[in-house]
Design brief:
The complex is a heterodimer of chains A (211) and B (131).
Chain A: H1 2-15, H2 27-56, H3 66-69, H4 72-97, H5 101-131, H6 140-173, H7 177-208
Helix pairs in contact in A: 2-6, 2-7, 4-5, 4-7, 5-6, 6-7
Chain B: H1 19-49, H2 55-77, H3 87-117, H4 127-130
The chains are: A mainly alpha (211), B mainly alpha (131).
Chain lengths: 211, 131
């Protein structure tokens, strides 16, 4: 009886090969997974900046502290912009999946505008701080703050450039397999940036306003 | 053979290429994610500004809310699931989270410990706090 069950089990397992027995995975999976690994390494890099910031957060050297510098209103607007652009980026990948070009362009434009709004607000905030004499050379706290927030801002800038390039590719080449894979990587990148921003506004802006 | 499957690419939803249905339910997933993320963000800002809560617990609350929001982003925007076609993505993510936790918690612990041990007579020479 037991043997019969074991054999039956064996047969069923053979009829259903696992993913590793199917041969090389499709390119979309390989590319997506590779980019996933890159994103995780990028997040590990961010974690080092976060750790540096957390250690130096109180090292203001007599200069202004976070409580005096941060405006929660502009941070809330920035957060809203980035979250909404992450949402429209998701809608864009749905439009790509169903081959709707007009919807793809529309979602891409909205994503770009929201991302640009975020970047403009952040640039204004940082420029205002530098104008007040609270630039990155003022204290260790401000150095780590500018490094962390500036690094995220650079990523957003790169993402916006990437989005423009991808839309040009969609216009010229159409939604070929290659273009579609690049767009998959872009949406992963954009969502990951939003996750980093969640930690940024929590750790830097909200916790910074506490003490 | 239809039940044999490759792994799923990170960020891909599991919906099969039934275009009409896939799109509307996909948009619904993103919308749910957006609403949840907005609620959690609003809660974070409220928790940071309210005077109703005990001050010592506020940063813990903010951390919990951030973790929850990260989960919302992962599930509703990046479509991470516990399904067998997603094991590789989840394992890579778990490893990344482990390294991140080691770097952040380790740095904070070591620096706090150094700060305690190296403090001379008064806070006079506390290098970390003054520069």
């Amino acid at each position: 009886m037991n043997i019969a069950i074991a054999l039956d089990d064996e047969v069923r397992r053979e009829a259903r090969p696992s993913a590793s027995e199917l041969g090389p995975a499709p390119k979309r999976i390989v590319v997506g997974y590779g980019f996933w690994i890159f994103l995780l390494s990028d997040i590990v890099m961010f974690s080092a900046f976060f750790a540096g910031y957390a250690v130096l957060a109180h090292a203001t050297a007599g200069g202004p502290s976070g409580m005096q510098l941060f405006s929660q209103r502009s941070v809330a607007i920035e957060t809203g912009c980035l979250l909404a652009s992450s949402y429209t980026c998701g809608l864009m990948s749905l439009a790509i999946g169903s081959r709707r070009y007009a919807a793809t362009y529309l979602a891409a434009v909205v994503t770009f505008v929201l991302g640009a709004c975020f970047l403009a607000l952040e640039a204004r905030e940082l420029a205002g701080m530098i104008a007040m004499g609270a630039g990155p050379q003022r204290s260790a706290f401000l150095s780590s703050f500018f490094t962390l927030v500036g690094c995220h801002g650079l990523h957003v800038t790169a993402g916006l450039l990437w989005l423009v390039v991808m839309m040009a590719q969609v216009a010229v080449k159409g939604l070929t397999g290659t273009v579609e894979r690049r767009l998959l990587c872009f949406s992963l990148f954009w969502h990951a940036l939003d996750i980093v921003w969640v930690w940024l506004f929590t750790v830097v802006y909200l916790m910074g306003a506490l003490s | 053979m239809t039940d044999t499957q490759y792994d799923r690419a990170p960020g891909d939803a599991s919906t099969l290429p039934d275009v009409e249905r896939g799109t509307s339910s996909g948009a619904l997933v993103y919308t749910i994610g957006l609403v949840l993320a907005m609620v959690l963000t609003a809660m974070s800002f409220w928790v940071a500004n309210t005077s109703l809560l005990w001050v010592g617990g506020v940063s813990l609350g903010l951390t919990v809310l951030a973790i929850a929001q990260m989960g919302v982003h992962l599930v509703f925007f990046l479509h991470v699931t516990t399904g067998p076609d997603n094991t590789n993505n989840v394992m890579a993510l778990a490893f990344g989270v482990l390294i991140v936790a080691l770097v952040v918690v380790g740095s904070l612990l070591i620096m706090a410990d150094l700060n305690d041990n190296m403090m001379p007579a008064a806070e006079l020479m506390n290098l970390q706090m003054q520069h």
